Amino acid sequence: MGGSDDLFSERGRSRRERLRELLRGDRPVGLEIGFGHGHFLVGLAEAAPALTVVGVEYQGTWVARVAKRIAQRGLDNAYVLKGDARVLLTLDVPPARLDHVFILFPDPWWKARHHRRRRMFTPELLDVLARALRPGGTLLLRTDVPAYLASSSRFVAAHPAFDSAESADDSGEPWVGVTTRREKKCANEGVPTDQRLWRRRASIEVSPT
Ligand SMILES: C[S@@+](CC[C@H](N)C(=O)[O-])C[C@H]1O[C@@H](n2cnc3c(N)ncnc32)[C@H](O)[C@@H]1O
After folding, report:
1. From CA 33, how far away is CA 140, in angstroms rounded?
2. Which residue of 31, 61, 81, 94 sits 20 to 30 Å from the alpha carbon of 39, by its own alpha carbon?
3. Quick check: pTM over 0.70?
4. From the CA atom positions of the chain, what is the Rg in Å?
């Protein structure tokens, strides 16, 4: 697993600078955390050319492979960065800059001792996302682990910056029908999956950096 410290090395600093560059300007931005094989990221970039799609993933092998696929397809609105999203989003994303955040099939890390260090979607990350998402911006979670969905839904529902979940399928957003590798595997094996879409409320102020 790539560690957070990597982001403070010389190469890590140049990746962080790259993210800050990508976020300059006012193009709408969708950010996928933990894109793995990158099927969703590439599919979304193709489906929504006006959206800048940024992926953050801490497995360098996936980052390199997906970067190659993006180049092969000639996509000029998709970018991938290696790093721990929990750190990158805190350090390098200006408040209210993201339009969409995608957390798709995160590892459940069942053992309690793993939770704290490795579970990606936690109340702490939600605080970071509340600051990074613009008012009206969306947060999409998909999973095949009902307990993950239930516990995540509880802490999002308790967060003052997010509205209650709405139907993702009726959202009319370009990612409806765009799937991840894990999602395709679940569909092939008959494993049920589920999703929740939450929206960042406008009424809650984001705190400055
Ligand atoms: C189970 S895989 C799912 C991959 C893909 N989203 C899919 O549905 O096929 C979860 C991915 O999230 C990445 N990941 C987990 N925590 C992360 C974090 N804090 N920052 C960036 N990537 C993370 C892992 O390296 C892994 O590739």
Report:
1. 11
2. 94
3. yes
4. 16
Pocket test for ligand 1, best of 107, 189, 195 (most atoms within 8 A of CB): 107
Answer positive or negative: Cα dihedral of 19, 124, 28, 174.
positive
Phi-psi region of 38 (alpha: psi -120 to 50; beta: other; left: phi over 0): left
Catalytic positions? 107
Domains in the chain, CATH or no CATH each = 4-199 (3.40.50.150)
Residue 53 CA to ligand 1 center (angstroms) comes to: 16
Between the CA of 203 and the centroid of ligand 1 the distance, in Å, is: 31
In this structure, what DSSP letter does residue 202 have? S
Task: Give CA angle at 139 (46, 135), nearest 5°.
Answer: 105
Phi-psi region of 33 (alpha: psi -120 to 50; beta: other; left: phi over 0): beta
Residue from 33, 41, 63 whose mutation best tests the ligand 1 pocket (most atoms within 8 A of CB):
33
Length of the chain: 209
- The Cα–Cα gap between 36 and 185 comes to 13
105-155 pLDDT, tens digit each: 999 876 666 666 677 899 999 999 999 999 999 999 999 999 999 999 999
Which token pair is 208? Answer: 């400055």
